[in-house]
Design goal:
Elements (H helix, E strand, L loop, with lengths): L6 H15 L30 H11 L5 H11 L8 H10 L1
Length: about 100
């Protein structure tokens, strides 16, 4: 949907512009191809919002001295399912880890 009061114009496009301004390369996923070698690296629709093929290299770049176990622990913590928690509890858990 495109229009003056659509989610695209009020949320998505401003977010894309913000991330682009921070040096990120935004990628729309409307026509995403799933599976091995897919567009963004997700196996199937709705299965993962965190793209590990991008996250792990960045964690290693930011923490070059970290052992593989620490990178694995960070990935596990960042991708832990917090959907059954209240928003406040999930936020507290995320900031304390």
């Amino acid at each position: 949907m495109s229009g003056a009061f659509s989610e695209d114009t009020l949320v998505e496009q401003p977010a894309i512009e913000l991330f682009a301004g921070l040096g990120c390369r935004p990628s729309g996923a409307f026509d995403e191809v799933f599976g091995t070698g897919g567009t963004l690296g997700r196996g199937e629709r709705g299965r993962r919002s965190c793209l590990l093929r991008h996250l792990v290299p960045v964690l290693k770049k930011l923490n070059p001295q970290a052992p593989p176990e620490a990178i694995d622990a960070a990935v596990n913590d960042l991708t832990r399912d917090r959907s059954v928690m209240s928003l406040a509890a999930a936020n507290r858990k995320s900031t304390r880890s």
